[in-house]
Amino acid sequence: MRFLRILLAVSLACGVLAPAGGAVAAEGKPLNIVFVNPGKTGEVFWDMVSQTMQAAGRKLNAKVEVLTSERNYRTMQELGLAVLARAEKPDFLILSNEESAAVPIVEAAEIAGVKTLLLSNTLIGDDAARLGPPREKLKTWLGDITTDLTTAGARMANALIGAARAGKWQSPDGRIHILGIGGDEITPASIARNAGLDLAVAAAPDVVVDRMLFANWTQSEAEHVTANYLNWASRKGIRPAGIWAGNDPMALGALNALAAAGLAPGRDIEVVGLNWSEDALREIKAGRLLLTDGGHFLLGGWSIVLLRDYADGCDFAAASPHVEVKTSAVTRNNLVSVSALIRTRAFERIDFARFRAKAGACGRYDFSIDALISSLSPANGAGE
User: Average model confidence (pLDDT) for the chain?
Assistant: First the structure.
């Protein structure tokens, strides 16, 4: 972090990070928004975040520029600081505080006078204690838009537990044994999902999580840790009943390991994931994946709705600077409703203007799956 603070000090001394002039965009004025994407190019979830953001921008008179950090958090910081050093600064900068890497950018944005919004991962721990809530010490930090991933994690776990009880998949000790695969131990979105798993298991005395392993959000690492777990369970005489994976790529890796071990997901064991990815939906249709929770890639589109409203004088902080969106589970029961949208990524079908706050109700939003489905225009001129 020290090199970033030195860079910031030098930039300020040279006048590079001069405050952005002018007020917030007037009603209807085109907006310039930059999103520093923390993911890799081709990483399904973060690509979809960017795509929904740009689709919303096209509907709401906002140009959205996406800069991808390729999962390199030093690169993410360098990209963010470079945006703030531009002569023509954007109206808004959207960041995700993965591994707490957005903090120096948010602090620099305060000096530069650029308004920021945190997406998916907000400030936690010492950073949250030091900087306080949005708009207090950092006036240009407008707030954050996140998802209730604790409830999602618990819903995923409860689905596994219900299936295991129905299938009578107890081990010889009479308990239901589950493997947990988390993304990492420090990202807020991962911590929240893992906490949901813990809550569900704590309420189920007949359930035990044998291992909580971390696979860095990747399919290959999840396949490896799952294979190791299955070998361990076999040696211990344990019958695995379910695998809880914190995202879809890790769930897919678990499916590969199960197949290699001669187990049939959906018949011998259940697996759950999170992301609403196309690959996961395909596995649900095939009966190999129990569910994928999520819809939170739509935070990209919803973030543009918030900033459009803010720019037009309807501040989302009238309700709270912390906007939390509920996720939903996709199962075989509701697969048809969203599969075409995700498969084609035709996010222009979403009527983003319909989600803007109503007059006199600034900060009140309905970003539910029901509202999403009802807003969709027909796919290719036909119904779903």
Answer: 91
